[in-house]
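re: ur question from yesterday

yeah so i grabbed the chain u mentioned. its 105 aa long if i counted rite. heres the sequnce exactly as i have it in my notes:
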Amino acid sequence: MGDSQDATPRCAPGRVAPLYFRAGTAHYDDVAGRIVQDLGLLPVGSDLLGDGGATFTAAQVAAELERAQAGSIVLLHMNHPESRTVDAYGRPCRRSAIVASVSSF
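ran it thru and got these structure tokens back, copy pasting raw so excuse formatting
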């Protein structure tokens, strides 16, 4: 990265800047981890694969969301509209706070 480039995380006015970074591959080596930390972010992963890589049924997604604990990071593939991930949000779920926070992300 050259001196003229500023990699400081930014966000739109009125939005909160991110605190965490998750690599798309969920893999970090020591160099990548240092870069993320140098940017003032915390590298994170996930502890639940909430939709089986966009292969689960809505019932399976809802069941995975039920397993989430306080502090869990659930990986959901909202970029696959053909999957049943989004259908789980219409189902009753005790973890409604998680569903609401993920939906508004």
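noticed a couple things. The chain has three helices and four strands. also The chain has two domains: 13-44, 46-105.
anyway ttyl
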